[in-house]
Specification:
The chain has 228 residues and is an alpha/beta fold. It has one domain: P-loop containing nucleotide triphosphate hydrolases (Rossmann fold, 3-Layer(aba) Sandwich). The protein contains nine helices and eight strands. Helix 1 crosses helix 9, helix 4 runs parallel beside helix 8 and helix 7 packs across helix 8. The radius of gyration is 17 Å and the shape is globular. The protein binds 2'-deoxycytidine-5'-monophosphate. The site of 2'-deoxycytidine-5'-monophosphate (DC) has 15 residues, from helix 2, helix 4 and helix 8.
């Protein structure tokens, strides 16, 4: 039987660099599946929060893992939904405190190993634009295109604050900035699959680009990769 060849686009970068917005737009343009891997880590973070577990406590988090049922589904508009033990937690995982839980639980190698197959399996079955922190370096090292998305800390903090406000979540801008700085440090310095660009990643800095310009830049890179 002829094997269908799928294309993988790995999009990595720090928190609030605009990965999900850009990845979603590019995936729609090319008819690829958009996979938000941060949402998977957030689901584990939410489970730890609900269980009253310290997310930095490796033993406690490991004990929680085998009992967790994390599923990903796509609704009729192609939007990714996260299910935790059958409950749709797509909104609950976006709360700012869950961002910190997600960053903490994601530092455990056991958690990363637990979620790896789910991510690779999606890329085996579909052409994907997958965003995260270690997609180009660890999850999909053979991706046809790896993009490392960056933006200044100030631009990222402002965008994240606006995004939360749009969702009706009012936060203090200074707190948003602090949360992003905390996650930057932690996601970059952890021993297990830290955030870093793959050697063959293309850098895309969106600090000075509008959303439309950023989408066009990413789509241009994908088009080039498809023609290679
Ligand atoms: O992309 P995000 O902000 O929703 O991700 C939430 C946290 O999950 C982030 O602080 C680090 C972690 N994460 C990770 O370690 N690896 C990924 N591939 C995606 C997210």
């Amino acid at each position: 039987m002829e094997q269908t060849r799928h294309m993988a686009v790995a999009l990595d970068g720090p928190s609030a660099a605009g990965k999900s917005t850009l990845a979603r737009a590019a995936a729609r343009r090319f008819g690829f599946l958009y996979v938000d891997t941060g949402a998977i880590y957030r689901s584990v973070g939410l489970a730890a929060c609900r269980a009253g577990i310290d997310p930095k406590d490796t033993a406690a988090v490991m004990e929680l893992l085998p009992g967790l049922r994390i599923d990903m589904a796509y609704d009729e508009r192609g939007v990714q939904r996260m299910l935790l033990d059958g409950e749709d937690v797509s909104e609950a995982i976006r709360r700012p405190e869950i961002s910190l839980y997600a960053s903490d639980v994601s530092a455990h190698p056991e958690v990363r190993a637990f979620l790896m197959e789910m991510q690779r399996d999606l890329a085996r079955r579909h052409s994907v634009v997958m965003d995260g922190r270690d997609i180009g370096t660890v999850v999909l090292p053979d991706a046809e295109l790896k993009v490392f998305l960056t933006a200044s800390a100030a631009a990222r903090a402002r965008r994240r604050w606006l995004e939360l406000r749009e969702k009706g979540i009012e936060t203090d801008p200074e707190e948003v900035r602090r949360d992003i700085a905390y996650r930057d440090q932690q996601d970059t310095r952890r021993a297990a699959a830290p955030l870093r660009p793959a050697e063959d990643a293309v850098f895309l800095d969106t600090s000075e680009l509008s959303l439309e310009q950023s989408v066009e830049a990413l789509c241009g890179l994908i088009r080039e990769a498809m023609e290679r």
